């Protein structure tokens, strides 16, 4: 007997078709993963089960939960189901909790809103579920507020809210996408344990195929609102039928061939760099404490070398990046590019600054929406003493657009006319246009779909051959760093704990933290890789 | 929370000290000698000197500043140059009109604005929302003295429910006093309510788009329950800011309304004192208003912390 059965679900918002004839089913105790790239309709499928669609949504087909038709159920009856029979966990733990209510109140609300039990009993249940998700009340009192918890801990609270009434079905929409790898591994373990223990069905939405392969009993692959392939995990991985499925797995494990390094002269030299942040005073007359974000970091980046920097959030990666770019002054130590310091006195050294460019993570937020592409990519020209003008300027723009795989006509367009992947190409063109000696990629492919990410990685490899790039590639994604760098550094709590040839570090990690990171990162199984 | 309150309190005291220096300096720099103003252009030099000595105008500026501050701390605001009565008494009389009027208007404005703003946000884009938005647009556009005159015309002249002006005084009983402040309070409250309702609506709409509102719905709360339990309190921060600003305005900015209704309020007192170069009265009232503004900001800061736990820990 199926717990959830979706049959021929079609969904349109204001006339635009979002889902087409989607069918899937979940049995109690089963984990079904819905995967696909952005815009495939996987999240909307989850919201349709919850009946939490945006205004102007029209649905067709059927959704049976425990034998009851959910589609077009009156809102009051749907409210009785949500939270009690279906629980849901969301992607963004930082914003999924109400900041002005305690975690105890928020978990308790699930129970009280359904009048499931009297208050005293409810409080005991809250303590029980919070302990179950790894937040025992003796260490995490119910009176804590969300801002006093880390991202992983907040996600545990969200899970506690979702399972407080032991729902028959749990929906998790990208539950670990915003979390670090080690935290991700813990949360996935927790979800798996809960499914076994409560005999729940779990509908898991994720774009991460390694997570899918690791967790799911059944896989459903979606593209543009349609299910292209589905089946039991082992079977599907061994016999991928649809070309899209094969493409997805191929792209997830995309390898690029970097050209050989030429010379061995140092370009960027970082020596004993320390960056402290002052914490707020704890008392009126006490000295403010300091937080050491970057702790005596030293490394050298050679000309033509591709260096990776990995570590979890809060380890100091971004602070180090800002210091290298001269956006922040360091307390001690020195950063030199080509022999010249990035900071002269208390001011950034402009001569050095014009030799560096950066590409950021967010392809949506890092462009001024009111400027045309030609103006956007020539922004770094203001760093030059004699910026090119007239036809020379036009030639440079055209060359860069072609180099990153866009057309020269794109120069006159606005940024909203481009997709995420195209925007990241424009960001690379912007970084490359003044031929910098060093480029910093700060999580530059983390927000992209796997197929787009594969294309951007290919582009980087091509550019390495054409322009002799030297770059520092900062990422939390180990599989990407493994293919796109020659050497890698592992950062933990402000310190570089291990560095070496990339293949060597990944194959034989020496520091325990590196080992922990590598083992926590979900791996695509060999079977899938061979078929792909 | 206590540390937070203490820090706010220290900043309150510092602000007051700075404000007093600035007020004193500005008024001293302003041209015009009160003594010669009082005695007229034909005054004899020795009479003028005598009056200056009597008023304390012959002392050094520093001494006069400390005299003024010291007196105020002890409740002695000095003597009015023109009326020859204690300034503290004059201010106290007027405060008994202006303060209740401001509070009355603020209460009315909040009572109108909260339900209107919440109602509009909950029905975004629907006829109810459009009606509220239209009404608030009108409330902001129309000046409050026009409301005042319309209120007088309808409720005082035609219906005879209220007096057209004047203040009955509190000694005839609380309700009589309140009754005579009702029309001015409504005239003051309507434009303020229109602004406040718009702030409430837009603030709440921002909150309704937050992830935690979706979480609340996923727990089984209805749209209305989610709005009341998770939306309103989060939407309060910008609303509290506006309420604080409005109170300061209502306390002294109601001079036109005081004129329309013949109310002996603070606004009129300042206006008369400035015309008569009664500097000591001007200084004292301005200082009092500054104190009121800073004190209200202090209360607003405390209210922020009560609403948002993140502020309590960020000291």
β-sheet strand percentage of chain A: 25-35%
Helicity of chain B, in percent? over 70%
Oligomeric state, counting identical vs distinct chains: heterodimer
The span between the termini of chain B is 9 Å
Describe this structure in words.
- The complex is a heterodimer of chains A (about 525) and B (about 325).
- Chain A is of the alpha/beta class and about 525 residues long.
- Chain A has 19 helices and 22 strands.
- In chain A, helix 9 crosses helix 15 (about 450-465).
- The longest helix of chain A is centred in the middle third of the chain and has 18 residues, at about 180-200.
- Chain A is globular and about 70 Å long.
- Chain B starts with a helix and ends with a helix.
Topology:
The complex is a heterodimer of chains A (532) and B (315).
Chain A: E1 4-13, E2 16-26, E3 31-35, H1 42-50, E4 57-65, E5 68-69, H2 75-81, E6 86-89, H3 103-113, H4 119-132, H5 151-163, E7 169-173, H6 181-198, E8 201-205, H7 209-215, E9 218-223, E10 226-232, H8 233-238, H9 243-252, E11 266-278, E12 290-302, E13 306-310, H10 317-324, E14 332-337, E15 340-341, E16 343-344, E17 347-348, H11 350-353, E18 356-359, H12 373-377, H13 390-403, H14 420-432, E19 438-442, H15 450-467, E20 471-475, H16 478-484, E21 487-492, E22 495-501, H17 502-507, H18 512-520, H19 526-531
Parallel strand pairs in A: 3-8, 3-9, 6-7, 7-8, 13-20, 13-21, 18-19, 19-20
Antiparallel strand pairs in A: 1-2, 1-4, 4-5, 9-10, 11-12, 11-14, 14-15, 16-17, 21-22
Chain B: H1 2-29, H2 34-39, H3 45-55, H4 61-73, H5 87-122, H6 127-141, H7 144-158, H8 174-208, H9 211-218, H10 223-252, H11 255-260, H12 266-275, H13 279-307, H14 309-313
